[in-house]
Amino acid sequence: MSDLYARHRAVIPQWVATNYSEPIEIVSGKGCHVTDGQGNSYLDFFAGILTNMLGYDVAEVREAVERQIASGVYHTSTLYLIRSQVELAEKIAAISGIPDAKVFFTNSGSEANEAALAAALSARKANQVLAMRNSYHGRTFGTVAVTGNASWKASSNDPFGTHYLHGTDRQLPAYRDLSDAAYIDACVEDLRALLTAAVHPADVGALIAEPIQGVGGFTMAPDGLFSAYKEVLDSHGILFISDEVQTGWGRTGETFWGIQAHGVTPDFMTFAKGLANGFAIGGVVGRGDLLDGIRGNGISTFGGNPIATTAANATLDYVLSHDLRRNAAACGDIVISGLKGAANDLAIVADVRGKGLMFAVDLADPATGKPSPALAARAMEETKARGLLVGKGGLYGATLRMAPPLTLSEAEAREGLALLLDALRAVDARAAA
Ligand SMILES: Cc1ncc(COP(=O)(O)O)c(C=O)c1O
């Protein structure tokens, strides 16, 4: 065990998970590559959990932040006007597609979801929430409650009443063999039944859902499910919160916001992670009347501070001016089609899925067909040994999930695919031996 890892274990809570039997310290980065404390370099296919959205050491972001630092002002609080915050809110409101949108900035995705839930529940004078099975929405009190993935639930305390919908649990025997249309029908009928039998619709504030479940292993409902749900929700006035913390900013390649794949304009979208390319930021964009409706005064001391919003403006401008959504589609296609093409020859690969630069591989024991966290752990080590950083997740911890910077080049997409396949073949050969 390295000295730093020993010190980490001594003072950081044991539930703060690290990757690898010997966790690495990333000490420098450029583009899509990083170097660890031992001098090993890696192609980064996880980007600090989708957060280094443009990669490392991006001049446009660095120079903008340096200019802000040189002004001497890192923080003022929202008691004073913050030009970079207003500019960022204007841009996000405009690209949200939400009519008369306003934006409230926070420091994290968890706080963003708390703010959206608060606005929805107060607008509806409600105390019940709908969420999806296998979801992850954060680690604060309310967001743990709407998280539907038991291994990420720190407690079962629930400040509302949370009801979990089907829609992302297609692996269950009752749903496995249904067509997309039949599955959507079954899920919508279940929602209707829930609102008839178990909870009064007038008590329900909102449905909160990730268009593609991040921690859940990039599992996703068939396109169209959320518009079908929304018809039912609209008939009762129930609001819809799309958690875009992982799916926003063009990452899925096909649309700018993940939820647009369903043809839905939600009442709120929450965001965080990549927006400031590594500086802490989160927020909620939503209908102005709803966000205005939260009772009482409110601040977030650091939320939307000049440094984070300056970095975010530079990052968002870069994403838009370089059309990184299109790049995500092209590079994602290289990796996803390459993985799908190779999957048949890999007995350990149970499924390959993804959209744009958000893709995943499920690993299963070839003998039993059951999800195998052990094989996923082995694949993590094998990719690391080959110089590729990937992530892990899924309901059973048996999914490799990858989300490189949106600036990935096509050559880097091919390089990463080759490293990944080489690692998977090594794990496959050992599993067969
Ligand atoms: C979809 C989603 N929502 C919310 C969060 C919580 O964000 P944060 O860790 O910034 O609080 C995460 C974090 O992984 C996430 O993936």
Lay out the secondary structure.
Elements (H helix, E strand, L loop, with lengths): L2 H9 L14 E5 L2 E4 L4 E4 L2 H4 L8 H12 L12 H14 L4 E6 L2 H16 L3 E5 L8 H6 L14 E5 L7 H4 L3 H18 L6 E6 L2 E2 L5 E2 L4 H12 L2 E5 L24 E4 L10 E6 H5 L13 H16 L2 H20 L5 E6 L4 E5 L9 H13 L2 E2 L1 E3 L5 E4 L7 H23 L1
Parallel strand pairs: 3-15, 5-6, 5-7, 7-10, 10-11
Antiparallel strand pairs: 1-2, 2-3, 4-12, 8-9, 11-12, 13-14, 14-17, 16-17
Helix pairs in contact: 3-11, 4-11, 8-9, 12-14, 13-14
The structure holds pyridoxal-5'-phosphate.
The site of pyridoxal-5'-phosphate has 15 residues, from helix 5.
Tell me how many strands there are. Answer: 17
CATH topology of the largest domain: Aspartate Aminotransferase, domain 2
CATH hierarchy, class of the largest domain: Alpha Beta
Share of β-strand residues: 15-25%
The SS-based structural class is alpha/beta
Helix content: 25-40%
Provide the residue-averaged pLDDT: 97
Low-pLDDT ranges: none
Q: List the ligand species.
A: pyridoxal-5'-phosphate
| Total count of domains | 2
Number of helices: 14
Distance between the termini: 29 Å
Shape: globular
- Biggest pleated sheet: 7 strands, mixed
Strand order of the largest sheet: 4-12-11-10-7-5-6
The fourth-level CATH homologous superfamily of the largest domain is Type I PLP-dependent aspartate aminotransferase-like (Major domain)
